[in-house]
Amino acid sequence: xxxxxxxxxxxxxxxxxxxxxxxxxxxxxxxxxxxxxxxxxxxxxxxxxxxxxxxxxxxxxxxxxxxxxxxxxxxxxxxxxxxxxxxxxxxxxxxxxxxxxxxxxxxxxxxxxxxxxxxxxxxxxxxxxxxxxxxxxxxxxxxxxxxxxxxxx
Length: 153
Description:
By secondary structure, the chain is of the alpha+beta class. It has two helices and eight strands, in the order βββββαβββα.
């Protein structure tokens, strides 16, 4: 996933043809109008040291929503009882070389300011969505996820 960088433009990819191994969830955490950017640790396989949202591979037998909620717990310590809102966004197809990836997007609005990040992240920052571009070292497709989230409000 480290080279994911472009929203598929043409040809249009049938989402049902994308294998589970190329299917992920991406969760933007929001608190009081700010979003959490998380800095990926050096211990992960992809996008080391880059700023991103919560992500995870879709596990077999799990729905995208179930996986997104599980990733929130694992990566940020955010449990369902701390969510004020949890909503799916549109699915995003991104290409990495010749391989399409399907990304199920979600927004999680939380009542908790403090996140309990796991080994996948070194730190996090709460920022206004308009300030994301100040984080030059961010995963390329984060802008696509945030663009979909903002346009889906």
